[in-house]
Specification:
CATH architecture of the largest domain: Alpha-Beta Barrel
Radius of gyration: 19 Å
CATH superfamily of the largest domain: Metal-dependent hydrolases
Number of domains: 2
CATH topology of the largest domain: TIM Barrel
Largest sheet: 6 strands, parallel
Bound molecules: zinc ion
Number of strands: 11
Helix content: 40-55%
Distance between the termini: 18 Å
Length: about 375
């Protein structure tokens, strides 16, 4: 398996970025307020500053499915993701396969849930089929697959969008740790322990508590993640799992997509079962890790407020952006909006340095520690 299926000679950064980014600046500058107005001038100023942040630091969406034609869709591998990432100047997408996808549906409250018990091997087969889809995406559709931090840096320098292959829920393991080793060999570098399907790893937030936290096999999986070189993601896990995982972990943990409990910025939502308490978030930060905030806010400004809510609890070194971009509507419906989000962060009061950390720097720290 290669890490760069797209034959593309690196272009000198000084030539590549200005050519790529200038049209976005013009687009942003014209997006708010009449030309010549104070609002237009202010928008142009933050657009320019946003592009500067994205040029200097590697930006990462720490949890995504790649939009409407992404990995959870029925669409064949395609160029939509690479094109949108280029248009919005997103450098890296943690692109998550969903092994329990075939058995998910909406429950009576409209929330995603497993609606049947999978057949033995069914989720493993689906996972392998999605890995084949991802292989074709990186072989033929303009995305580099990053296996190391050096790959991410090289892709950013070349101005080429990169993906980190991710798995949302290790439901395909069926207690076979060798399947985790196989996933690593297939290019996966980021794994989330639980999702919506009961497994042998630990309890998840929207399901019945059966393990009282992290199971013995779950502790074995965390140690294997460290040994093999995966970012270990505890999104969807209960607070009890997280507290026990923190004791097992010897590397920073990621909680890739959530928001703070009783988030004022989110407004009324059916997703309260997936939000986290301040203590839950602090436990992740104490490992040196980060909490990704998803994009389920009514506007980019509210999204920035959601990032501020989390930052007030754990500090700017422990917050990331994990949109969970999918077919569910949110304020970053495709990556042409990424540069607008970064501009909104700057307008909302984050400094360029803070914005760079949240938009990717914090994840890069975790990736370097976990994967190398
Ligand atoms: Zn999720
Ligand atoms: Zn997801």
């Amino acid at each position: 398996m290669d890490c760069c299926g797209y034959g593309h000679a690196p272009t000198p950064r000084s030539l590549m970025w200005p050519a790529m980014l200038a049209p976005i600046g013009a687009m942003l500058a014209g997006s708010v307020g009449p030309l010549g107005s104070t609002a237009a001038a202010r928008t142009a100023e933050t657009a320019s500053a946003a592009l500067d942040v994205l040029r200097k630091s590697i930006s990462v969406d720490v949890h995504t499915h790649g939009g409407k034609t992404g990995i959870t869709s029925k669409a064949p591998p395609n160029e939509d993701l690479a094109n949108a990432m280029r248009a919005g100047s997103l450098a890296v997408a943690c692109l998550a396969d969903v092994p329990d996808g075939p058995i998910l549906g909406r429950n009576a409250q409209g929330v995603l849930a497993a609606v049947r018990v999978p057949e033995p091997g069914e989720l493993y087969r689906h996972h392998l089929e999605r890995l084949t889809w991802m292989d074709e995406m990186v072989a033929s559709h303009g995305l580099r697959r990053a296996l190391t931090a050096a790959d991410l840096e090289a892709a950013h320098q070349a101005g080429q969008p990169a993906v980190i292959a991710d798995v949302e829920g290790l439901d395909f393991l069926e207690t076979k740790i060798e399947r985790l080793e196989e996933a690593h060999q297939r290019g996966i570098r980021h794994v989330q322990l639980v999702h919506y399907t009961p497994n042998d790893i630990g309890d998840f937030q929207t399901g019945a508590v059966t393990h009282q936290g992290l199971a013995a096999f779950g502790a074995e999986v965390i140690r294997a993640c460290h040994r093999l070189g995966f970012v270990c993601d505890v999104a969807h896990a209960t607070e009890a799992v997280v507290r026990q995982a923190v004791r097992v972990a010897t590397k920073p943990l990621l909680l890739s997509h959530t928001a703070l409990s009783e988030s004022r910025a989110m407004c009324p939502t059916a997703l309260t079962g997936r939000q986290v308490s301040a203590d839950h978030a602090r436990a992740i930060a104490e490992t040196g890790g980060s909490i990704g905030v998803w994009h389920f806010f009514p506007s980019l400004e509210k999204y920035v407020d959601g990032l501020k809510e989390m930052t007030e609890i754990v500090g700017v070194d422990h917050v990331s952006i994990g949109t969970d971009q999918h077919v569910t509507p949110g304020s970053v419906p495709d990556y042409t909006r990424w540069v607008h989000l970064v501009a909104a962060m700057l307008r909302g009061g984050f400094t360029p340095e803070e914005t760079g950390k949240i938009a990717g720097g914090n994840y890069m720290r975790i990736f370097r520690a976990a994967v190398g």
